[in-house]
Structures are given as C-alpha cells and as structure tokens.
Sequence to fold (273 residues):
Amino acid sequence: MAVENAGHAPSGSEYILHHLTNLTQGEGTSALHLDSVFFSVLLAVLFVGSFALVARKASVTKPGKFQLFVEVLVDFVDTQVRDSFQGTSKLVAPLALTIFCWVLLFNFMDLVPVDLLPKAGEAFGIHYMKVVPSTDLNITLGMSLTVFLLCMFYSVKIKGAWGFAKELLTHPFGPWMAPFNLLLNFIEHLARPVSLGLRLYGNLYAGEMIFLLLAVLGGSFALASVTGIGAVIGQLILGTVWGLFHILVIPLQAFIFMVLTIVYLAQAHETHH
Fold:
C-alpha cells in the first residue's frame, strides 16, 4: 500500500505528502500540474463523447438505459435552470449541464482506491500523480474564474458598460453612497469566484485526506499484526463507511457549483431600476 522511497517504507506523513503532490512541470507561477490537466481533459472527453454517442443513437421507441439516464440528467439540470434563471440565454443550460457533469466526474475520481492509479503510474516512471482534479486549487479556481468572467461579460452585454457601472455605483444604497456602493459591490463580486472555487476544493481535499489517513491506518495495523487481519478488517469497515458518506458529498458539491453558477449568471442578467 505504501510507496517505496529510497529502499525503505515511508512514514505516514511521507506517504500522505507523496499522494498530495502533483506531477509538475516548471516552477513558480509558470508551474503546470500535468496530472490535473490530463485527468480534466480525459474526463471532459469521456463526458462529451458519451453524450454525443447517446445523441447520435437516441431512440424514441426503444431508448437504452444510458439514454434514459442522460435524459433524466438533462431534465434535472433544465429544471434547475428554469427555477433560478428567468432570462433568455442559449448558454446557461448547456453550461450548467457541462459544469455539473464535469465536476461530478472530477469528484467521482475520489472513490478510486488511493494507490491504484499512482502505482500504475510508477510502472511508467511517473512518481507523482493526483487523480482528483477537484483537489487541485488551480482547477477549481480556474473554473470559478471562468464563471466570474462570463458574469462580467453578460453584465456589460445586457446592461451596457454605463448601465453596469451605474449599478456598481448606485446599488444598493443609492447615488449618494456611491463610494460605499462601489466598495461593497467590488467585495461581493470578488468573493464569488473565491468562495466558489475554495468550497469545492476544500470539501474534496478533506475527503481525499481522510481516504489517505485510512490507508495509513491500515498500514499501521498491518505492521502491528503478523497476519494483517486487523488491517483488512479495519480499513474495509472504515473505508466503506466513509465511502458511502462521500457518495453523498460528491454529487452535492457538483450540484452546489452548478446552482451558484446559474444564480450568478441570473444576477448578471438582472437590471436594477
């Protein structure tokens, strides 16, 4: 279970640090997390490819199980958009569906056994590999900043540059409180992408950390037991309990990210009189 390092079994802290280290190219601000980019693109291709396959082979008379699943998913997202977004836009519903499915796939990678893919990577000379994109702050903040830029774009497009500027200066306390209104709106708009990205990152990072702690706990049992029965039983029970709970967290975080995106875009389409 533990990763071999310099000919000796690593300690628990070394084991956890190893699994939380990205495969990185470059240094500083120019560093690129290759593993996060790879799995993000891979899951995007999986999502787009599977939905495109369903669309191409869709049948009204004899729909397959996966087609029914996709239709339920699309209808679910469409309902959320209709409830939260009152404007007219060809982007919001497809964007919400993409965000929900993509983040959901990101989060489901957290259920893959923590040593499975890193061990497979070692066979190809890859010593570091994080397989859950949503445990990488660069990925979650990148998505939230994209949502933020879309909100800014539609705020200017719908309200006009002067209309948006006027809203920042006069809402919510009127023109006589323009400096305070501007400061308040600046903080509000800045807090949105930060909280959106940090919420997803924090929840999934914590979940991954608990899986790693359970793996270390299993290794500790194995060292204390000649047969390793304690490791198998303890890790199986605790891992199953946490995995079942985490199954609820995974879609919930994807749902929250999607709903907040819809709400922010809805607010960008609103005009204050």
